[in-house]
Amino acid sequence: MNDRLPAALIAQTARANEAAILNAALGAFGEQGFNGASMREVAKRAGTSLSNLYNYFPSKDHLLGEVLRRANAELATRLHRAVVEAGDDASSRLREAVRAYVGFVVDHQLAMLVSTAEVRYLRGPERDRLVAERDRTQAIVTGIVEQGVASGEFRTPHATDAGRAILSMLNAVASWYRADGRLSRGQLAEQHARYALALLEAPLAHR
Amino acid sequence: MNDRLPAALIAQTARANEAAILNAALGAFGEQGFNGASMREVAKRAGTSLSNLYNYFPSKDHLLGEVLRRANAELATRLHRAVVEAGDDASSRLREAVRAYVGFVVDHQLAMLVSTAEVRYLRGPERDRLVAERDRTQAIVTGIVEQGVASGEFRTPHATDAGRAILSMLNAVASWYRADGRLSRGQLAEQHARYALALLEAPLAHR
Amino acid sequence: MNDRLPAALIAQTARANEAAILNAALGAFGEQGFNGASMREVAKRAGTSLSNLYNYFPSKDHLLGEVLRRANAELATRLHRAVVEAGDDASSRLREAVRAYVGFVVDHQLAMLVSTAEVRYLRGPERDRLVAERDRTQAIVTGIVEQGVASGEFRTPHATDAGRAILSMLNAVASWYRADGRLSRGQLAEQHARYALALLEAPLAHR
Amino acid sequence: MNDRLPAALIAQTARANEAAILNAALGAFGEQGFNGASMREVAKRAGTSLSNLYNYFPSKDHLLGEVLRRANAELATRLHRAVVEAGDDASSRLREAVRAYVGFVVDHQLAMLVSTAEVRYLRGPERDRLVAERDRTQAIVTGIVEQGVASGEFRTPHATDAGRAILSMLNAVASWYRADGRLSRGQLAEQHARYALALLEAPLAHR
DNA sequence: AATGAATGAGTGTTCATTCAT
DNA sequence: AATGAATGAACACTCATTCAT
Fold first, then answer.
1. In this complex, which residue's CA is closest to the C1' atom of nucleotide E14?
2. pLDDT (tens digit per residue) in D133-149
3. pTM for the whole structure
């Protein structure tokens, strides 16, 4: 009875619980929607008690906020990495960005689903903060589009709107993709890169 | 006290009430989501009593089902009309279809929003029936795409998936369009027609 | 199965339910305090369901407010009647007022207890409104005191404060009175009238 | 890490914590009522953790009990001292007692408020014990009254009840007194001494 | 077709208290 | 003595739905 968990392990436990709750919330919100999922359901999925949830997140809204924030952070990280490692021309940068984006959607389909479907239930400063973060993430893609239009690599006359259209397309993948489907992860990414470049009217030389 | 409304007038009243309820439901579901909106809220918006709702629709689920069904029917009607009036080649048929689709999104933004966001809360045969109807509607667009690919008018190698990508793009318009925004209805339609044809890699001669 | 309750009876039923709920709330708040009593407890005492409570009162706070308002209204009515029927001099007016006050405390001990102990849990405009009403009621007594001091009937040099002291005394009766106690209702009233006049230093001629 | 606080200092710390908790509880119970205040709130006010409260007091009830016990002890001490230092006749003893009582109410208004309002939430032997202590305290005042009535100094025919009426008056001061009000501490005491003697119908010679 | 009253299950959240360390 | 995590019961309130009329 003299055994004590070292402090580091305790911290790990706490963090593990937090992660379990966030995952549970993601699953519950994803399957039943934010309003359709109950805190009781989240607790059950996380393997803890209802009231213990409130030791980690002060409210259901905050829980949703944190779920969305983490999803966006991961997506942003992936996009940054992809763009940094890509070449200098807009086409190859866009191709890598789209690949990374699709990769994220496939790896974190539920997170993407929840991200697009449940943001609307966030209110107040929590919402504003998240919207700002998401805008920054999306700007990685739209920025490339604008760069390419400016440089003449993309010939579309609608720089701003075309970027949004591409993002819509990519986000929507989460709503129909099945891991056991016809298309592999790589094919999916490749296809969407092609859609994007075509939509932007990049000349064949640049694709 | 012997006065009775003639049957025709009663029917008219009933139909007016039904429409009021459906509109109220559309508004409530659109603003608060299916699970976030209560039947009380719908009743308040419709200007009737909570319990009277059940004289028109047997449950909240049926109410949602009917809202979605009507939205899809109107969209299908518009698409049909547009395609019938278009030329014979896939490009002009697709352009008209996209125009009609965007027109519907603009005219019935809330309906489109609800249609994409809240279908998931429908269950059972109600759901199956609706999904089938929506598939038929979307097939109008994807059919054109496949026709064009088959005839060589569209050069994309991904006939099926490209159609889906285009639909995603169009549906997403509902989530950001503002009537007082930068783009007119016509410009919006035109732009999206161009996106679609570019994405499908239609040669310039066909655009 | 053709029997229908006449509209008047329905109204009576509704009113009876309202009264039952108010009585239940009075009992629960009186025995367990506002915060100690639950709406479930109130519902149980009223013989109805928890949720049905909310068809009559929009919140626990409103329920408390209404309980207090009714108690004050009844007290005010009794005081008015007593004062109107009393003579013209301050002494006899005060005596009748005190008698009526004590009578109310004895008849509605619980209401008086709740009135003094639970007002503090009322908040917002509900509270302000009630405080104003209570002030008007207490002014009936303090008014007589000031009248008597002005006319020289009462010789106390502390007109305003003495009135408050008397009211404190009377209110406190609710906290110890027992119907099966040593003193009859009449004796209790008589005693307190005497205390009040003595405290105000009314000369013996006026008592 | 070998340093240890000397036992005396630990004891002092412990006592300081205990006092902080009792004060916090007094404040919380006073402002929100016993049932309205949470142990979390008490902990926050005391500047310690929720669970640490239970190292000092085994339950919320015990905490309330201790708060009330201390308040009563202080009041009793003050009353004793005042009476001991007063003259021999009932009038001057009562006057001093009233002065001390009012002084306590002014100095420890919150304690007095809590004492009268929250005793009711005490149960079991805890309650009995406290009630007995309070009775002893109040007997200091009522004893003087009875002594004075017996000696003829007070002419009221209601020895027992008059004492209670006076105590009611004095207790109630806590519910309206404001430090920045019209009356000074001394004036307040003087006034109430006068009320008490008048109520007891002490002849002018004795006041 | 229309209503207000009624209900039981469920909501998010807080409670006093205990546990492990 | 001190903490943060944990819990089960309870809280006020709302839900979709039904009933009686």
1. A51
2. 999 999 999 999 999 99
3. 0.93
User: Is A5 near strand E, with its CB below 7 A from some atom of it?
Assistant: yes
* CB nearest to C35's CB, from D33, D198, D201: D33
Question: Do residues D83 and D140 make contact, with C-beta atoms less than 8 angstroms apart?
Answer: yes
Chains B, D in contact: 3+ Cβ pairs under 8 A? no
Burial of B7 per CB tally in 10 Å (0-12, 13-18, 19+)? exposed
Q: In terms of pLDDT, which residue wins out, B17 or B14?
A: B17
Neighbours of chain B (3+ CB pairs under 8 A): A
- Tell which residue, B6, B3, B4, B44, has the closest CA to residue B24: B44
The pLDDT assigned to C6 comes to: 53
Are the C-beta atoms of D94 and D143 separated by less than 8 Å?
no
Domains detected in chain B = 1-57 (1.10.10.60), 66-206 (1.10.357.10)
Kindly report the number of other CB atoms within 10 A of residue C59's CB atom: 12
What is the CB neighbour count within 10 angstroms for residue D36? 16
Strand E contact with A129 (CB < 7 A): no
Would you state the pLDDT for residue B4?
52
Radius of gyration of the CA atoms of chain C, in A: 20
On whether any CB of chain A is under 8 Å from the CB of B54, the answer is: no
D195 contact partners, CB below 8 Å, separation of at least 6: C158, C162, C165, C199, D166, D169
Which residues of D in 30-59 have their CB below 7 Å from strand E's atoms? Answer: 37-41, 50-51, 54, 58-59
Q: For residue D64, what are the contacts with CB-CB under 8 A and spacing of at least 6? A: D25, D29, D34, D118, D121, D122
Q: Which residues of chain A have pLDDT under 70?
A: 1-12
